[in-house]
């Protein structure tokens, strides 16, 4: 940050990417309050935060469980450069699943279907991982079925999420789900 201030003092012109990198660094160091202040000062530096700026802070706030601040930040995400993106939804879904709020994560996933965004395996994987961690095998199967029905192909992250069942002592269930998933994918390929 000092280096950036020195560059500006010497007539250099940073861009928003420079500031987003600093926001990311502060958040990774756990300096969220400082990052928030820095974010709020961006307009005084001549920059309007974009969706990336918001997502950087949103990720940290959500994973820290600071829901009230995250909701306030979400309310600010309107306008051409700040509208929520698929990344925004993935952050919300992932953090809710991380905190064990899978029902809420599934509601956000349903909202995603109503908007212009298409969920990917990265959207589903945190929910599947949490359901596996909680030992909810039937819910895992239901979520995977929805994923396949939506033509969303599982990826290695999906299989890693299912492997969490093994950590929970449900090895047979994990292998059964993987076999079933493989069969469903093969049958959908034959239909195409």
How is this fold's topology laid out?
Elements: H1 2-9, H2 16-28, H3 32-41, H4 51-63, H5 67-75, H6 86-98, H7 102-114, H8 121-133, H9 137-149, H10 156-167, H11 171-191
Helix pairs in contact: 2-3, 2-4, 3-4, 4-5, 4-6, 6-7, 6-8, 7-8, 8-9, 8-10, 9-11, 10-11
The fraction of residues in strands falls at under 5%
Number of strands: 0
- Mean pLDDT comes to 90
* Approximate helicity band: over 70%
Q: Tell me the major beta sheet.
A: none
Which structural class do the helices and strands define? mainly alpha
Report how far apart the termini are: 54 Å
- Report Rg: 20 Å
Number of domains: 2
* Oligomeric category: single chain
What is the overall shape?
A: elongated
Organism: Camellia lanceoleosa
Protein name: Pentatricopeptide repeat-containing protein
Structural write-up:
With 192 residues, the protein is an all-alpha fold. The chain folds into 2 domains: 1-84, Serine Threonine Protein Phosphatase 5, Tetratricopeptide repeat (Alpha Horseshoe); 102-192. The protein contains 11 helices and no strands. It has helices at 2-9, 16-28, 32-41, 51-63, 67-75, 86-98, 102-114, 121-133, 137-149, 156-167, 171-191. It is elongated. The mean pLDDT is 90.
Could you provide a short overview of the structure?
The protein is mostly helical. It has 11 helices and no strands. It has 2 domains: 1-84, Serine Threonine Protein Phosphatase 5, Tetratricopeptide repeat, CATH 1.25.40.10; 102-192.
């Amino acid at each position: 940050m000092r280096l950036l201030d020195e560059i500006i003092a010497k007539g250099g012109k940073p861009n928003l990417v420079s500031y987003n990198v600093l926001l990311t660094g502060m958040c990774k160091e756990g300096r969220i309050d400082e990052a928030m202040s820095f974010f709020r000062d961006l307009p005084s530096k001549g920059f309007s935060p974009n969706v990336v700026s918001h997502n950087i802070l949103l990720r940290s706030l959500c994973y820290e469980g600071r829901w009230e601040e995250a909701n306030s930040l979400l309310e600010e995400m309107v306008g051409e450069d700040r509208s929520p993106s698929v990344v925004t939804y993935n952050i919300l879904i992932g953090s809710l699943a991380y905190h064990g709020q899978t029902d809420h994560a599934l509601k956000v996933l349903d909202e995603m279907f109503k908007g212009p965004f298409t969920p990917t395996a990265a959207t589903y994987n945190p929910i599947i991982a949490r359901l596996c961690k909680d030992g909810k095998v039937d819910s895992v199967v239901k979520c995977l079925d929805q994923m396949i029905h939506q033509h969303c192909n599982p990826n290695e992250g999906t299989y890693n999420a299912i492997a969490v069942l093994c950590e929970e002592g449900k090895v047979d269930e994990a292998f059964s789900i993987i076999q079933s998933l493989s069969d469903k994918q093969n049958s959908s390929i034959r239909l195409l």
